[in-house]
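RETRY 2/3 - previous attempt timed out on the joint model. Re-submitting the same 620-residue input unchanged.
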Amino acid sequence: MGKAVQPAQRIFTYDHSHAAPVRPACECHAVNIQSVSHYNSRRNEALYQPGHLMNRENLIQVEHLHRYYGQTRAVHDVSFDLAKGEVLGFLGPNGAGKSTTMQMITGNLAPSAGQIRVHGIDLLDEPRRAKQEIGYLPEQPPVYRDLTVDEYLYYCARLNRVARGHIERAMDRARDRCGLGDVRRRLIGNLSKGYQQRVGIAQAILHTPAVVILDEPTVGLDPIQILEIRRLIRELGQDHGIILSTHILPEVQSTCNQVQIIHRGQLVFTDSMAGLERRLQATSLVAAFHVTPDSDALQQLPGVTATEPLDGGRVRIHYDGTDPSEALVELAVNRQWRLHELSPDRRTLEQIFIELTCAEAPAGETGEAA
Amino acid sequence: MLLTIAGRELRSLFLSPLAWAILAVVQFIIAYLFLSAVDAYLMVQPRLAAIEGAPGVADLVIAPLFGNAAIILLLITPMITMRVLSEERRNRTISLLFSAPVSMTEIILGKYLGVLGFFLVLLAMIALMPLSLLAGTELDLGKLAAGLAGLTLLLAAFSAIGLFMSALTDQPTIAAISTFGLLLLLWIIDWAGKSEAQVSGLFAYLSMLRHYETLLKGLIHSTDVAYYLLITILFLGLSIRRLDADRLQH
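RETRY 2/3 succeeded.
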């Protein structure tokens, strides 16, 4: 686990300092169809790295999932899979189809077409066996307000066919993991939203399912609780497969090792966190000068592909391959441009997200081809 | 699994003040009816003693009591069944059941058994009243048993209808009012055909009241038993279908 999380953690902190430049979005990075298919073509390479393949145990396989509400297309041809030890972040704007997909995987909603296999068991053919391997926390925790935490967990354990002899142990473990020890005898209706959410998570992991599916688990929690829940999710990720839906981007960066972006019912981006990390690496510099530089001269620098003047005497310099910082500093000194600021302009997950989801053209047709 | 769901249903009923209030009110009203029936019986008893083969306590006290109890139960059934499924849906707790390894049939039957459990408690309390007469007199136990069987069958049918209505909507009040409407309609449906002999056969068969009356007389006909069982099974089946349709949506 450690390896995957560390860099993610780093991005997370980085992101905070850089959260501001969520730019006026669409027009500056209007995505074109090419970039979408480019993301998807990378997908296979990222997912099936040799190291990965060695002990890849598929917990969930989703194939060509479709869902229509009347004429409305909620989910269109979604395919992905999830292996043990993976924490999959499911991103998308409101109404993109995240919840619909999750409801289908958990058997709450019948798909219009497609196949879902949980641990190799077909969900539609053998719902009972398949559902035993799934723990699900819907958007709104499904708790009974008139039961105490213990009563509720006991009921859930029975419902999920935990053997009587194991119920105590299962409840203990779930309570410990979710920090519910102090409130076990209190009525759920009297607990705060954060605790109710934790009860919901406890319910989802109670019967040690192979896959835990969490729909926006940190909504409505305070920052400390959010950190705790994220830590819990990372911990759970070690021996379960986890699918996590959210629209909070730093959350994905801090907890997940796989990322998927869904937009208008289609997957438009699938990559591992490591792959994403590479993609987030700097491809441009922002430099500020007191004297307006000669853009032709900038273009001549090795590796520079384009320059783009910004306000306040700043220039964004796009490059490919070698980092032109040193050469730029040297040039600036020689020409007396009085350079006073130079920073790598890292792409953030926000940008990728916005690029993909603000695309006016329905990116679909090419997206699914990959 | 059935019992887990049924147990939880029964528990939540008794955790709410509604169930206790209903038990108390029903008990009070039926006790009052019972007392006045006994009182009336005591008035006419000397005269009845003179007649050969006169109707006994079972006919003059128990049958009218159970007849009235049926009407009262018709009024309160909607209040018990209204929230069974609609509230789960409304609070989104239904997804707990949907994502657990249980089938729709198990969910419906579990819920049904829970509701039925509550009504059996109510029924036991009602039955205690006529049984208390055993202390002072002899009772036609056969007639009492037939009456109780009738009330049980009636409640089984009432609950199935209530459960189905609750499965249809996520508004408990709408479930309640439609349950009440349907029950009342089935109760009085034979009024319609009274003038025309042709239609009345069907309507009389559909009427819950007709079948109940025969049972109160102490006659257990298979037609009547089959009628209640058919109604119960029909509405349970429909509820299962309805719940299954939740997953299909549009």
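The two ends of chain B are 30 Å apart (CA to CA). Closing ticket.
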